[in-house]
Specification:
Residues 251-484 form the Amidohydrolase-related domain. The protein has 514 residues and is α/β, with parallel strands linked by helices. The protein has a domain at 1-273. The protein has helices at 20-28, 42-60, 67-74, 83-106, 125-133, 147-159, 164-173, 177-189, 215-233, 245-250, 254-265, 287-302, 327-333, 352-355, 377-386, 401-404, 410-427, 452-462, 467-482, 489-500; strands spanning 5-10, 194-199, 236-237, 240-242, 270-273, 306-309, 343-346, 393-396, 434-435. Helix 2 packs across helix 4 and helix 6 packs across helix 7 (164-173). The radius of gyration is 23 Å and the shape is globular.
Length: 514
């Protein structure tokens, strides 16, 4: 590619930054359905799935470096562990999780010691351990598992089997944020495709069970990571900060104050919202709506873009996935109070309501309200852009596994391409409102994400998306959305941040032609 790709949607958080129990259940396993050899569906499958949830919670809990720990390392206030030391620590954590699974099988430990989660179907720990041990040759014994046996199972989990992708992802979540950023660069940007990355940090603490690094510390550590990556690689990184209206209601002024600090002082470029946690973009009752309107008013006045999860997924409760419906953004914009506010509705392109009507959005949900129904969310976004003339509304193509996953049939992929091409012709002929994103590290849950950028480009070409339209998708639209295509508050803030960090701000001029 001969143009500068902008990735508007990715993540470099680790397990210390998210409530582990909720993250495992609703995010990590919310859509990706693990496969077990001994059971494919029904109660037997659910028992294995629940045991695997507990195992992953044990694996991820209390082992990832906190934001404060990493800040000390990045600021050289404490020694940085060697790569070998980090890998040994992660390997030991996996071994310990296997040993604790053995203890759960033998009745020496209880589920409640490791998680507050409750299960309608009891976890089958013995069945899960049998799955883990199947290809190791280890026989079931009366005595407790030895460390050597746990290490043998750990080797199998890391290198083969149906569950390898989840274990690999969990091990990634045990690492340093800077390491995740550098792994991203190795995969997506080593060939200089990517010039700007805008990773998001999350704020799920008030909605999901589990302890996390303080949001203020997460801001500080990403500030440090941004500067380190820019200095050492030349790839620029400016993050999105999470805003939680529930935190703002429970602790008035705190969440908005953190947003302002991140944007005004730490080189962050925008705000991330997760409606599936339990709120809507508009039409909420009482103080949640007030908190959101305070955020919107400030973002409008300060020229700050907002990104929102806009897919029926990762709902923290029955029907919560549908709280991300773009119809609530359409209603907000219909007030004409926020015409100049730039909004990105993330995870565009699955056309789930058309492709999967009546299916349940989450693999773990039996809730009727979670089923895909009604008009496609893509059509709602299209009508808002085209019919309502909302020039500042965008959507990103992040985690577009439907186009690149080897697990998707070519027939299904072809229909997704047809739907996408039809949408562009009907609502956005110049593709002036779609943007590229990877959603890495979440994309690491897929079996094959190498060469993701050229593969997406290839699929867009097959969908009759031309070269000029692809330039819009891969960088020009992002430049407009982020406020970098012209002089203004957003671009001026990033230029000032670069100067304060001793970084050259001339790179921003690359967006002048967007």
């Amino acid at each position: 590619m001969d143009f500068p790709v902008v990735d508007v949607h990715c993540h470099f958080f680790n397990a210390a930054d998210v409530p582990v129990e909720g993250f495992v259940r609703y995010v990590m396993l919310g859509e990706q359905e693990p496969e077990f050899v001994s059971a494919r569906n029904g109660p037997a499958y659910l028992k294995l799935l629940n045991a695997f949830i507990v195992f992953l919670v044990v694996l991820l809990s209390g082992a990832a470096p906190s934001a404060k720990e990493e800040i000390l390392i990045l600021n050289r206030a404490t020694d940085r562990p060697t790569r070998a030391e980090i890998e040994r620590r992660k390997r030991r954590q996996l071994q310990e999780a296997v040993l604790k699974l053995d203890q759960l099988v033998r009745g020496g430990r209880s589920t409640q010691e490791f998680t507050t989660l409750r299960f309608a179907v009891p976890p089958n720990y013995e069945g899960l351990l049998a799955e883990f041990s199947a290809s190791t040759g280890l026989a079931r014994r009366g005595a407790s598992m030895t460390e050597g046996e746990a290490d043998t199972i750990a080797t199998v989990l890391l290198n083969r089997g149906e569950l390898q992708r989840y274990i690999a992802f969990a091990m990634l979540m045990l690492d340093y944020r800077e390491t995740l950023a550098r792994e991203y660069i190795r995969i997506f940007a080593s060939n200089r495709y990517v010039s700007l990355v805008t990773p998001s940090i999350l704020d799920f603490e008030k909605w999901l069970p589990g302890e996390v690094s303080q949001q203020s510390d997460q801001i500080d550590v990403m500030d440090a990571v941004q500067a380190h990556i820019a200095r050492s690689t030349g790839i620029h990184m400016h993050s999105f900060v999470g805003f939680d209206p529930r935190r703002e209601v429970q602790e008035p002024g705190t969440s908005l104050a953190l947003v302002k600090r991140a944007i005004l002082e730490h080189g962050f470029v925008g705000v991330k919202l997760y409606p599936p946690m339990g709120f809507q973009a508009s039409d909420n009752k009482g103080p949640i709506e007030t908190a959101l309107r305070r955020l919107y008013d400030w973002c409008k006045d300060a020229d700050v873009p907002i990104m929102a999860h806009a897919e029926n997924s990762i709902g923290a409760g029955c029907g919560y996935g549908k709280k991300a419906n773009p119809v609530f953004w359409r209603r907000l914009l219909s007030t004409n109070d926020y015409d100049n506010m730039r909004i990105n509705l993330a995870h565009f392109g699955g056309f789930d309501e058309v492709m999967r009507p009546g299916e349940v959005a989450s693999s773990q949900s039996s809730c009727e309200e979670d089923k895909f129904s009604g008009p496609s969310w893509e059509s709602i976004i299209g009508k808002t852009i085209d019919s309502d003339k909302r020039s500042n509304l965008f959507a990103d193509l992040s985690y577009f596994s439907e186009l690149v996953s080897p697990e998707v049939t070519e027939t299904y992929r072809k229909e997704i391409r047809r739907q996408l091409g039809k949408w562009i012709r009907q609502y956005d002929r110049n593709a002036a409102h779609l943007m590229f994103g990877t959603d890495w590290s979440m994309m690491a849950l897929e079996t094959n994400y190498n060469n993701y950028i050229p593969r997406i480009s290839e699929q867009l070409t097959l969908a009759d998306v031309g070269p000029d339209q692809q330039q819009n998708i891969f960088w020009k639209n992002a430049a407009r959305y982020l406020g970098l295509a012209r002089r203004g508050q957003s671009r001026d803030r990033l230029a000032a941040y670069c100067r304060n960090c001793g970084l050259d701000s001339a790179w921003l001029s690359a967006f002048d032609t967007a």
